[in-house]
Design goal:
The protein is α+β, with helices and mostly antiparallel strands and 160 residues long. Helices cover 28% and strands 36% of the residues. The protein contains 4 helices and 7 strands; from the N terminus they run E-H-H-E-E-E-H-E-H-E-E. Strands 1-2-3-4-5-7-6 form a 7-stranded mixed β-sheet, sandwiched between helices. The chain binds coenzyme A.
Length: 160
Amino acid sequence: MKRHARVQRPKALFAPMQVDDIDAVVAIELDSFTMPWTAAMFRSEMQNERTSRLLVARMPHKGDIIVGYLAYRIVLDEMHIILLAVAPAWRQQGIARQMLGVGIDEARDAGCLRATLEVRVSNTPAQQLYYGLQFAPVGTRPKYYMQPTEDAMILWRDPL
Ligand SMILES: CC(C)(COP(=O)(O)OP(=O)(O)OC[C@H]1O[C@@H](n2cnc3c(N)ncnc32)[C@H](O)[C@@H]1OP(=O)(O)O)[C@@H](O)C(=O)NCCC(=O)NCCS
């Protein structure tokens, strides 16, 4: 019988975002979105310690580089996911799925019972990722995004 090599998934570590991480995070943001967050926006988000959580994915065996990040807010018992990106060279290797899993576990531990996010109607990769993690579409927000103008799909995972 023919044996197939197993695909090696990279071993990422997930840690709270630090101020020193922001430059690397903004570089990925610029590669990922048409209206990227600035360093000042990340610094401000990090100051909302009561409600905001920011995680980075690091590659300890690759010089500890930052390859992705996730940001969410805790709104009462809801996890509101506001940012998620993986550096282009590191995509389709399971990093976003692992990172969302870590974030969801943390949010559940913090008392969240459900999670929500918006995604561009054209963003099939992200939608597939979310569907695989039990998020389901519940509606749209017309013209929610700019550059280009586009509707958002609203997804919820309930229960978390
Ligand atoms: C969306 C994004 C975060 C996915 O990151 P990633 O690390 O490549 O995703 P993963 O490797 O963990 O993929 C998990 C699942 O997502 C889906 N997926 C990821 N990339 C995909 C692609 N190019 N096409 C179709 N499905 C894709 C698949 O279902 C995949 O599962 P599989 O590996 O079993 O096929 C990444 O493409 C990205 O940073 N995009 C730009 C920023 C963005 O759109 N963020 C989300 C905004 S809502």
